[in-house]
Design brief:
With about 90 residues, this protein is mainly alpha-helical. The protein has two domains: about 55 residues; about 30 residues. About 80% of the residues lie in helices and about 0% in strands. The chain contains three helices and no strands. The longest helix has about 35 residues. The protein is flat and about 55 Å long. It starts with 9 loop residues before the first helix and ends with a helix.
């Protein structure tokens, strides 16, 4: 397996060492997660490009409706997160 030198801020280094955390495993998991996140974003962009090519750019009204829906979903998600936090605490 190839090796890579990684630099951490002192506070993170101290926490990793102090807790006896497996730095190599943590880095691998973080890199895998970031690569997956970027791949999903690229796939989303590709899909949106296909949609725009198929049906055209959204109108101002459609964008406004979508923004309202996104805000509604975000509020619902935040509300559920707060409820779960209170139940756990």
């Amino acid at each position: 397996m190839p090796r890579m030198q990684v630099y951490l801020p002192q506070d993170l280094y101290d926490q990793v060492k102090g807790r006896g955390l497996p730095a190599s495993e943590l880095l691998q998991a973080a890199v895998r997660a970031e690569v997956r996140r970027q791949a999903l974003l690229e796939e989303g962009d590709r899909y949106l490009g296909e949609l725009v090519a198929e049906v055209g750019e959204p109108t101002a009204d459609e964008v406004a409706r979508a923004e309202v829906m996104v805000e509604r979903l975000a509020r619902r998600s935040r509300s559920r997160s707060r409820s779960r936090s209170r139940e756990a605490g």
